[in-house]
Design brief:
Two copies of one chain form a homodimer. Chain A is of the alpha+beta class and 228 residues long. Chain A has two domains: 70 residues, Winged helix-like DNA-binding domain superfamily/Winged helix DNA-binding domain (Arc Repressor Mutant, subunit A, Orthogonal Bundle), CATH 1.10.10; 133 residues, no CATH class. Chain A has a three-stranded antiparallel sheet. In chain A, β10 and β11 form a beta hairpin. The two termini of chain A are 32 Å apart. The C terminus of chain A is likely disordered. The first copy, chain A, binds a DNA duplex (30 and 30 nucleotides) through α4.
DNA sequence: AAGACAGTTCGGTGCACACCGAAGAGTGCC
DNA sequence: GGCACTCTTCGGTGTGCACCGAACTGTCTT
């Protein structure tokens, strides 16, 4: 256990892993940039992480694209982040990140929690610490958005999993259905990735769509959450 | 994130934390013993872990009893262990640990998985990566064992949660109901804690009871699991 | 074939920190 | 009060390892 934790325990490697929780595959040079170390040092770090089964890569020409090796790794990192965040003063280095961000492959932050809330309020979703489920009305509702719930359900991975949000300290939707919702939001250009970050930008079309679909009024305008 | 992971990343501290995943509260001296370092060194480690919100302690006379600070910490450690175990060759340092052990406050290892399997097979329990639930017939069944399912359900903590077993690579029951089952097994003297370890010993009464109740024939006799 | 660029390997430097011995503070028992 | 015991604080030592510069391999471009 200590070997794995020690790998995550290095500042530079932790920065690289945080960047990869976005689910994207990044090249060694990009990772060097986010970790603020030279390519030589990055290379050492990456080979250790691959050796330990935390990352995998595939080579395309002279580029090497690194990504998290498994969902177990992603879950481990979320676990560490949750403990780390629980200690921190409620000041976020990046308020954009608290507003809307990507968490491996699904939406998180105020936006992720707001979507989950809206679905729950309207009887489309059940979500608790033990797990989650989409109701029949939810299946119909999401179909109108262009999401194939039955298809998601058939996939091997967890279908609907609660994910504890480290900034909001509440649950948002993960699993196949969480990924499907996020994918549709990208496709419809409701949200854009902000370069070099897990943060997301909500487009004007997104503001409209989110209000019309989920009744979400500008997450940006919401006060910093009021719990604890 | 890196600070928290770095704390777990030290060999001695990781040994202490592993010992505490058993859910028991241990004194500084006991932790010094499991970590194989002097009391002075242990004291430093413990104060760092408390400072970081990973451990808490309560003082009783001249003793200080340390325990994990929260369920989030426990979940983080399980996550790290899962990733660490996924890499290891399928040789366990301690086969007793693979057979039956305590995982925070519930049963794990071959025994934990076998109990979950039996309950599922008989329609008493639903358990998947997304969560779990006890059925009506399960409620009746567990009541006969002396477990108050409704009472467990009312508790604030997660009621029935899947926990990925690092030795079996399959799910066993965690959450309030998992803790309740474990507690009853202790009360009925089906299993005993083995000193200084998370491992459990199955008593002769336990062998009988487990066979009669769950149809489990000696987990000790089972072959080392056949996956991967 | 030459140059540009991505990534790796090697060798050396410097710092952070785990560790222990010695000494001190607080508690319990007789 | 005196002694035993648990735990902590302080100071000094040793080492593991992150880091970089320099040099090398491999791929793409022109």
């Amino acid at each position: 256990m200590s070997e794995v934790a020690a790998l995550v325990g290095d500042r530079a490697r932790a920065e690289m892993l945080s960047a990869l929780v976005s689910g994207r595959a990044l090249t060694a040079k990009e990772l060097a940039y986010v970790a603020k170390v030279t390519p030589q040092t990055t290379s050492e770090h990456l080979s250790k992480l691959v050796e330990a089964g935390i990352l995998t890569f595939n080579t395309q020409g002279r580029f090497r694209y690194f990504r998290l090796a498994s969902a177990a790794v992603s879950q481990m990192l979320e676990g560490i982040m949750t403990v780390a965040a629980s200690r921190r003063v409620p000041t976020f280095r990046d308020p954009t990140l608290a507003r809307a961000r990507i968490c491996y492959d699904h939406l998180a932050g105020q936006l992720g929690v707001a979507i989950a809330d809206s679905l729950i309020r309207n009887g489309h979703l059940l979500l608790g610490p033990d797990g989650g489920e989409v109701t029949e009305s939810g299946e119909t509702f999401l179909a109108k958005l262009g999401i194939d719930v039955k298809g998601s359900r058939r996939r091997r991975r967890a279908f609907c999993r609660p994910c504890l949000d480290w900034s909001e300290r509440r649950y948002h939707i993960a699993g196949a259905i969480g990924a499907a919702v996020a994918e549709r939001c990208f496709e419809m250009k409701w949200v854009n990735r902000i370069e070099e970050s897990r943060a997301l930008h909500i487009t004007p079309a997104g503001e409209k769509g989110l209000l019309a679909t989920f009744g979400i009024k500008r997450v940006a305008a919401e006060k910093v959450s009021s719990h604890q």
